[in-house]
Specification:
Mean pLDDT: 84
Order of helices and strands: EEEEHEEEHH
CATH architecture: Alpha-Beta Complex
Oligomer: single chain
Strand order of the largest sheet: 4-1-6-5
Strand content: 25-35%
Low-confidence stretches: none
Distance between the termini: 34 Å
CATH class: Alpha Beta
Helix content: 10-25%
């Protein structure tokens, strides 16, 4: 049985690359680091619905579930392991791209380079793999 097939709490994240090739990340005071926008999936909620909700809660950006493409899934190991799905969202599909701003206390969104994101700790091993997967597979499909 795969780890993600066990009953684990669920999470969803979104990766967005802007027209300058920068990736959206959020700085989180509660985790003393940064990560992709995302969070817990509520009971009965679809992974994609959680991804859209968390994106709005953490960054103020609005998107439709239909514009998400699932491209990475696995167990994000932490104090509690999570079954996490990561979605790619085309930058041009964001409905209010000029309204990026802090929404939650202690969570600050920002654009950063691919290399800064994966080589600057503390960025989780799971998130590093998701970003590398995005750049090696999704981008090659001319998704963004």
């Amino acid at each position: 049985m795969k780890q993600e097939d066990k009953i684990l709490p669920k999470g969803a994240s979104v990766i967005i690359e802007n027209q300058q090739g920068l990736v959206l990340a959020v700085s989180r005071a509660d985790k003393n680091g940064f990560c992709l926008p995302g969070g817990k999936v509520d009971f009965g909620e679809a992974f994609s619905a959680a991804a859209v909700r968390e994106l709005k809660e953490e960054t103020g950006l609005v998107a439709d579930e239909a514009d998400l493409e699932e491209f990475h899934r696995g167990v994000c190991a932490s104090v509690i392991n999570y079954d996490v799905v990561v979605f790619a969202l085309p930058y041009e599909k964001i409905k209010n791209v000029n309204e990026l701003k802090q929404q939650e206390e202690g969570v600050s969104p920002f654009w950063t380079s691919f290399s800064s994101l994966i080589f600057t700790p503390p960025f989780s091993y799971f998130n590093k793999n998701a970003v590398i997967n995005y750049f090696s597979h999704i981008k090659n499909k001319k998704f963004c």
